[in-house]
Amino acid sequence: MAKLPICKYGAPVLRRRCPEVKEITGDIRKILEDMRQTMYEEDGVGLAASQVGEAKRLIVLDGGGGLWQLINPRIISRRDEGASLEGCLSLPGVTVKINRSQEVTVEALNKKGEKIIVEGKGLLSYILQHEIDHLNGILIIDYLDKKKKKKTEEKLKKWIKETPKM
Hints:
Blueprint (H helix, E strand, L loop, with lengths): L25 H16 L4 E3 L9 E4 L6 E21 L2 E19 L5 E7 L1 H13 L10 H17 L4
Antiparallel strand pairs: 1-2, 2-3, 3-4, 4-5
């Protein structure tokens, strides 16, 4: 296992729709394990493969009830709407209030290739939607109005320009 670098705002992979995983190989399982380690070491609650430079439909998350590692997740139902204040490892220092479904049902595959259903409520629902957005090239700033989005993008570009590269 290895901690992976997090792609920051401006990385092209963050804006691409990730293709489905066709076959669950040892490489796919390794990416999921590396993502798990990265998420926990970064104190995140979720991570999409695109955030670590992999254009694959993979997410890992832990909303406090244990680890989920999902392949090709898709939302099959949504219920009730509520606001969530969200941050993102790829957008340092940015938080956005977003109206999302408070309950979602997600269909995915696990690492063994078995179809599973995840019922997400509250925080788990918000994390699932946030990470699946990443797989579709959607960032939290896309939920802002035009003026706030432009201001936030300028702030992010400045932060990235001024941040020393490691």
